[in-house]
Amino acid sequence: ALFIQDNITFSKWKVTPGLRFENIILKRNDFGNNDPDRTESDLTTKRNTLSVLIPGIGFNYELNNSTNLFGGVHRGFAPPSPGASEGTEEESSINYELGVRFENEDAQKVELVAFYNAYSNLLGTDLAAGGGGGSTDQFNAGEVQVFGVEIGMGANMASADSDLQIPIHVNYTFTSAEFQNSFESGYDP
């Protein structure tokens, strides 16, 4: 993996563009259930190679000494697992966020962020915890839209003139997600 990033500052603005390149070779040797000594008598190998460019840009605007507006647009990416079936594609999305952050000299903090993620392909995984069989096989789940808001608040509950710190933080996230298309998978469940 390689990346390049820059911080561009002018007036009250800070803009951070970046680009990441990843070249990934995934290989899995499956010796099967009938070869505990690993003699390769029942060996199957799965291989997948992919190269991807992952761009993004973020910004911060300082309204005053304690309040900032921030946001960004970034490409999301996750490779399929080494054992993924042939035809399983990488997870890909475009992610947007916009927020405001307040912090004063008394260490009181409030942050409010809205986000929207547009997946062109969400990877699904068969997990026992999700009601599946637990094989961890991955599959292409298709297009998904996710949006939500997150709010976080924090403060130091100790007196300002004390060396003692008693940080208290509360966070809440609301998320809504919806598949944008039906999909079929070679994975039966």
- Which descriptor suits the 3D outline? elongated
Low-confidence stretches: none
Q: Using only CA atoms, what is the Rg?
A: 23 Å
| Count of runs of 4 or more consecutive helical residues | 0
Residues in β-strands, percent: over 45%
- Proportion of helical residues: under 10%
N-end to C-end Cα span: 35 Å
Q: What about the largest sheet?
A: 9 strands, antiparallel
Report the structural category. mainly beta
Q: SSE order in H/E notation?
A: EEEEEEEEEEE
Number of strands: 11
* Average pLDDT taken over every residue: 87
Question: Could you explain how this protein is built, in words?
Answer:
This protein is mostly beta strands and 189 residues long. It has strands spanning 2-5, 8-10, 13-30, 44-62, 67-78, 91-103, 109-121, 123-125, 138-140, 144-156, 167-179. The two termini are 35 Å apart. The radius of gyration is 23 Å and the shape is elongated. A hairpin with a 4-residue loop joins strand 4 (44-62) and strand 5. The protein has no helices and 11 strands.
Topology at a glance:
Layout: E1 2-5, E2 8-10, E3 13-30, E4 44-62, E5 67-78, E6 91-103, E7 109-121, E8 123-125, E9 138-140, E10 144-156, E11 167-179
Antiparallel strand pairs: 1-3, 2-3, 3-4, 4-5, 5-6, 6-7, 7-10, 8-9, 10-11
List keywords for this structure.
single chain, 189 residues, mainly beta, nine-stranded antiparallel β-sheet, two-stranded antiparallel sheet, 60% strand
